[in-house]
Input
Amino acid sequence: MDASVKRPVRSKRPSKTRDNLVYAVVWLACFAPLVWLAWRVFSDDLGANPIETLIRQIGVWGLRLLLVGLAVTPAARILRKPRLVRFRRTIGLFAFSYICLHLLTYIGVDLFFDWGQLVKDILKRPFITLGMLAFTLLIPLAVTSTNGWVLRLGRAAWQRLHWLIYLIVPLGVAHYYLLVKADHRPPLIYAAILTALMLWRFWDAFRRRAAGR
Output
């Protein structure tokens, strides 16, 4: 064989099959908590107050997925795996779905669609006020999550809109903290995770600006 003939360089880009497999894993991981909660309902394993437990657990998983979504960018940069960012949208939409289900379960199962009582709760119970505010702010982010909306708004305006997530997640943590009556350790752990993620973002922004990127 002629040594001067160069062999074709194999692309290091992951195959479409691998991408689809990773997407499937992400979907299954995001969907699994709902299956687990459905099983607990079916097996009557939600404790003495099953409705309260169900509503709370659905909301907690929504909050967890919001935090995972915030952690995607730091993980992608620290691990030098920029393609991880592609899964942030999927995780965010799953988080929104869980939060919608959390709210729907509260309104439908706990309040039996008593809209007057819902308004009273929003006005009189601070943790519900904060939760509804976070949900309201989350709606435009879910609606504009598609590539089409990025083009309509422009990349800069779209990014500014999605900075609302840095307000939404703290509101979600505060909602959870005020909801809990006894053991505040879980919401405090989420608050610590959120603080760490925000400090990393401030540090990364400072570092990139100092490097002129």
